[in-house]
Specification:
- The protein is of the alpha/beta class.
- It contains eleven helices and 18 strands.
- It is 38% helix and 19% strand.
- The strands form five sheets. The chain has a seven-stranded mixed sheet with strand order 8-7-6-9-12-17-18, with helices on both faces.
- 48% of the residues are buried.
- Bound molecules: 5-S-methyl-1-O-phosphono-5-thio-D-ribulose (MRU).
- The site of 5-S-methyl-1-O-phosphono-5-thio-D-ribulose (MRU) has 17 residues, from helix 2 and strand 11.
- The site of 5-S-methyl-1-O-phosphono-5-thio-D-ribulose has 17 residues, from helix 2 and strand 11.
Length: 365
């Protein structure tokens, strides 16, 4: 997508052809900074510190992180320990492990001298596939928005989203935002309610930033406002992303997603989860077996902000000395999900619904 008229992806190879460049998301929305990754440790740090975040982008970064490792040590042991090191950086998004498994599979039985080339090719392809998959998710979701627009007789369609499942969370397009961009680009009047998404404010800082850069009308709301808006008919649809979806259609996503799904259910607002195939963990039968990341309490106790002079600071916002809990994700049970919008179509959130779309996984029961 575009920033100031220039097309960007979230990750790309630098001009030297081997190091990797990313948009440092810890600096947004105040500063647009490109960071360079030269080692596996740099890639691991980028994932852990959330310079890159969002399930698909974490996977893409890990894939390139493995390329950087292979430059130093292309042996089986070297690849294995680098993959395990990268996989350990964040526990919840399954795309991280999925991408590393894809890389390992591509490298199996490849002679040492060809491994660097093979690895970079697979990582590049993984990024291309992410872009195409998200474009397809957007096409599927666009149909849902178009239906509401027609029912509304051409009046504005209001969509609520949580966290950032936008292009900044992927290589391009985003999952939850892809239908929104496609609707906006095709002339449908869409407006997005952007949950600020405490504690790291991915909504206020990232989703609002990217929607604004693309010219999509949007309004930032506090995380607790969604239910009120739904009660007053101000939300036509919810679109969220997911970090891992279980085989039964339970959805793990950014903390607070569950409460939005409950409010949507109570108010008959359709609640759609957008996801690529790589976010489905067929080995997990239900969402409550998904590990939930717990992060440092400083993310709750402090907030980053910019002063009028342009300087960026972290501010203490809580009573000094009080401890904080920082659960990064929650699980929305399948019964609260209207549909899973994937690159293959819209699935019912159930074992049967997912297996119908992905029959190659039907053997797992
Ligand atoms: O902690 P984050 O910012 O990595 O969490 C991101 C989310 O929860 C997204 O909604 C999810 O990864 C889907 S991104 C297409």
């Amino acid at each position: 997508m575009k920033i100031d008229g220039k097309h960007y992806r979230t990750i790309w190879l630098a001009e030297d052809g081997w190091s990797v460049e990313i948009i440092d998301q810890t600096r947004l929305p105040h500063e647009f900074v490109i960071a360079r990754l030269e080692t596996t440790e740099d890639a691991a740090h980028a994932i852990k510190s959330m310079q890159v975040r969002g399930a698909p982008l974490i996977g893409a970064t890990a894939a390139y992180g493995l390329c950087l490792a292979i430059r130093k040590d292309p042996s089986d042991d070297g690849i294995e320990s680098a993959a395990e090191f990268l996989a350990a950086q964040r526990p919840t998004a399954i795309n991280l492990r999925w991408a590393l498994d894809e890389m390992r599979a591509a490298l199996r039985n490849i002679p040492y001298e060809a491994r660097i080339k093979t690895a970079y090719e697979r990582a590049a392809r993984l990024c291309e596939e992410d872009v195409e998959t998200n474009r397809e998710i957007g096409e599927r979701g666009l149909g849902l928005i178009r239906d509401v627009w027609e029912q509304n007789e051409g009046c504005r369609v209001n969509i609520l989203t949580h966290c950032n499942a936008g292009w900044l969370a992927c290589v391009d397009w985003g999952t939850a935002t892809s239908p929104i961009y496609q609707a906006h680009d095709s002339g449908i009047d869409v407006h997005v309610w952007v949950d600020e998404t405490r504690p790291r404010n991915q909504g206020a800082a990232l989703t609002a930033y990217e929607l604004g850069a693309h010219g999509v009308p949007h309004t930032i709301i506090v995380d607790n406002a969604g239910g009120h808006l739904m009660q007053h008919g101000q939300v036509d649809l919810c679109f969220v992303g997911t970090d891992r979806t279980a085989a039964n259609g339970d959805v793990c996503n950014k903390i607070g997603t569950y409460l939005k799904a409950l409010a949507a259910h109570d108010n008959n607002v359709p609640f759609y989860v957008t996801l690529p195939f790589s976010t489905i963990d067929w080995s997990v039968d239900n969402g409550f077996d998904i590990p939930i990341e717990e992060r440092g309490q400083e993310e709750v106790l402090e907030m980053r902000g910019r002063l009028d002079d342009g300087s960026v600071h972290d501010f203490c916002i809580a009573s000094p000395g009080s401890p904080a809990g920082n659960y990064a994700f929650d699980v929305t049970p399948a019964r609260l999900v209207t549909g899973l919008v994937t690159e293959r179509g819209i699935a019912e959130a159930s074992v049967e619904g997912l297996q119908k779309l992905y029959p190659e996984h039907a053997a797992h029961e």
